[in-house]
Design goal:
- The structure is a homodimer.
- Chain A is of the alpha/beta class.
- The first copy, chain A, has helices at residues 8-11, 14-32, 40-47, 51-58, 73-83, 99-106, 109-112, 143-150, 164-173, 200-216, and strands at residues 37-38, 71-72, 90-95, 115-122, 131-132, 135-139, 154-157, 178-181, 194-197.
- A seven-stranded mixed β-sheet of chain A has the order 5-6-4-3-7-8-9.
- In chain A, a hairpin with a 2-residue loop joins β5 (131-132) and β6.
- In chain A, α2 (14-32) crosses α5 and α3 (40-47) packs across α4 (51-58).
- The longest helix of chain A has 19 residues, at 14-32.
Chain lengths: 218, 218
């Protein structure tokens, strides 16, 4: 049972994982301002997380801060980026080349975070056969063959909500290992399939609600 | 202290609020299939939330299910949409007309969820003065005047991460009441300002991590 090379990332708690991009954002900003060292106390002041929590979170990474000086900014940025997988090239297919799907394909920001959308899929003859920012759009029936040949483990789901489950089933049958679901639908998947839900519209509901509470209490 | 008209939305727990869009997504699909009634048990089977939790969540809304029949689908959809604020018109300005900002302006999906982006702002002379999908792009210095004249309480922040805090400060000074922050930066705001963080890139990190764990355990 003894493992000579422990997989640290296996045991990182998800709340820690979710905080790492905040630290990365902050140290990237420091580097752009040519700051050389930063302490967990200084990070804490900027992003409202306890300094002790930050030190604990960063202890999961292969980096040590120096007493009274802190972490080397450039090294911390590099280690965070690498740990988060942003410096690797993850191939993804996108299913549903409507308004949001097209927006994601044209968002060059995703490439900087390690996501490379290599093909789009749709059922609409008006978009099938077209190319968006050098990304070809295929008919959905070509998904199994194209996905495999392009080595895309990730399927991005940007179809209308009523097509979400059906599309997920097709993507999994075609060999996708992870689904990035942009619909508010709660997709059911077999065990072993990774699902990441990003419903930007659900976030809107929370924001409206808080704004209303403020207006009501005036 | 007795309030003759309790503000139900004031007391809804956030986890409940976050689940409502899932229910809405599902009943919208049912309506598109002309289903007339749905029980909390049937919803439960589809979206992996306990039936008792669903009944409890829906009890916050002004709707009653019928014994053995369930909720009227069309009424439930209408009540959910209204409660979530998706049927109202919320004006927003967008700051940072780069790749992601442009994508959000062109995403007509937001309009269907009650968000109307009425103006864009940037510092780049190459985009200032242009129009994207009928949305004019102004220089950032025009923000206070334009925001007020268009009645936009919400500011969407899609600038580079190192500009996030500065941009938030400008938006609040210009009168914005809510910030929808798409950067991974943890913005600090004065009390009373609503902040909704939607860092799609942080979601990517979680997805990569889970995919890696799966690959390692093969």
């Amino acid at each position: 049972m003894a493992d000579t090379k422990p997989q640290l990332r296996d045991i990182m708690p998800e709340p820690t994982l979710r905080r790492l991009p905040w630290y990365l954002a902050y140290v990237s900003m420091l580097r752009s301002r040519n700051v050389e060292y930063v302490s967990s106390t200084a990070i804490s002041k900027e992003i409202n997380v306890d300094a002790s929590q930050i030190a604990k979170d960063l202890s999961f990474l292969n980096i040590r801060g120096k007493t009274r000086i802190g972490y080397a900014v450039a090294a911390l940025e590099r280690v965070l980026r690498s740990y988060l997988g942003f410096n690797r090239d993850h191939h993804a297919v996108l299913i549903g080349v409507g308004s949001l799907g097209r927006a994601l394909i044209t968002d060059s920001g995703l490439t900087r975070y390690g996501l490379d959308i290599v093909a789009g899929f749709d059922v609409d003859p008006a978009v099938v056969g077209s190319t968006i920012m050098n990304v070809p759009v295929f008919d959905i029936t070509a998904l199994p063959a194209v996905r495999e040949s392009l080595g895309a483990d990730i399927a991005i789901i940007t179809v209308p909500v009523e097509q979400a489950q059906h599309t997920a089933d097709i993507a999994i049958a075609a060999g996708a290992k992870a689904l990035w679901n942009f619909t508010p639908f709660r997709i059911r998947t077999p065990e072993g399939i990774v699902v990441q839900n990003t419903s930007i519209y659900a976030h809107l509901a929370v924001m409206y609600n808080r704004l209303n509470i403020k207006s009501d209490s005036k």
